[in-house]
Amino acid sequence: MSKVFTITEGLENMGALRTGGQGSVYKGRRYGPIITAVKLLPTPIHTESTDDKNFRNFQNEVEKLKKVNEEPNPNVVKILNSGITESGSFPFIEMEFIDGPDLEDLLKPPHEPVFTIKEIIKLADQLANALSHCHKVSVKHGDIKSNNVKFNVHTGNYVLLDFGLSAMSDDQRRTSIRHAGAIEFMAPEQNEGLMYFQTDVYSYGIILYELIAGRVPFPLKDNGETARTAVMLAHMELEVPDAMELRRKNLPESWTEEKRELEMMVPSWLLQILSKCLQKDINNRFASGMELQDALVQGSIGAINTSHPDDAWNSDVLLKENERLQGLVLYYQENEGKQPAPTVVTAPDDPRSVRMSKPIFIMFMILLCGFTVFSAVVMDKFGGRIYHGVVNRLFKPSKKQQDTTTTQVSVPTRRDTQEQKPSIKPLEEEQNSNIPPEVDSTTDSILRNIQRIKKRNQDAQFYRDSVKKADTSNLNF
After folding, report:
1. Are 23 and 42 in contact (CB under 8 A)?
2. Which DSSP letter does residue 450 get?
3. Where is the composition biased (Polar residues) (predicted)?
4. In terms of Cα–Cα distance, which of 334, 95, 309, 107 is closest to 206?
5. Backbone phi, then psi, for 17, in 5-degree steps?
6. Beta-carbon contacts of residue 181 (< 8 Å; ≥ 6 apart)
7. pTM of the shown model
């Protein structure tokens, strides 16, 4: 493409991107593959001197714009350069070239006439971030509209462009707005050439309204003076139409009924922000982009302002979800109340089961352990006595029988046994006439075994005593 005119040395003019009464935007290229966007302002500056009021104002505003890029922001276009064109003496601002469609194109066919709720919230957050970033360095944009917000196809971000009005003087701005400005996006005070932070907030609200409803609240029918005046008066005097009613009418017919109902559930906090941005009085709007961004953050996380109950999330989605969760809580509470209490000893279905509380069971185990220890101590000290006492109590052996048994040293012969039986048996029968035969024989056997053990112990002790007393001094081995 042939050059229209020379912008400045080293910057090639590649043709107009957009022209208008507030200036034209050209596609520029520096030596190499770097592509930029050049904004030319409509009022020429013939002398680059501080004595020229227009040049001085331009330089002051450009210095403000440079502050915008002191901290990088993905939602604000980068200002690369500024100066005066070599031909025509027009002031220009060179900016980063954003490759992608603008919002005006995204709302036209073949695209849908309205944005989805997800995309609305994304753009609202990123555009508020851009405004907050500019207002922090005291830069007012003044020309926020749908074709000054671009979608960067390489990063997926929405970027705020064209700071042309920011670089104009008040007189230039007033003349430009009155004759060539995008009147559908302008705040009421801009008709008088005034510009505040709240002015950008109002234009932000118009863009948000357009995304929700599918069109601006007061469309411009034609570019005639009468139509422009009608739109200007509407911004100043008329109530804003219901955005949700327009959204229902503009929903795409290609969407399913389920999706249409889902996309009608715009969060109430977003509608509250929209209403506040579009107030006629600047004092009733958000004071700046920073305050607007804070409101978006609080709304997106569901924060509730106790002093303003209407700011709470009260959308149908949250109400239905709340009812569902309450039903689940009641269901689990009822089921928990129906569960039987756990038993300690046996299963509850056993008819022989014994239910015992935990404290009683612990006390019972302590007593059982104490009784066991006490029994062990008693048996250790008095076990022998108790045993002999029980034996003597049960069997009651006679003294004569014990004496007779102890005097026996050798095992009697069969003949002696036969001779002794007649003499012993009458005595046993006489003394133990009341003892059963089986007990008598058992007792006799036990006593004989005891005597044998005693005899064995005595013989062993005798042998040991004899060895100790023996004189072994003369023994030789």
Report:
1. yes
2. H
3. 432-444
4. 107
5. -95, -40
6. 21, 22, 143, 190
7. 0.58
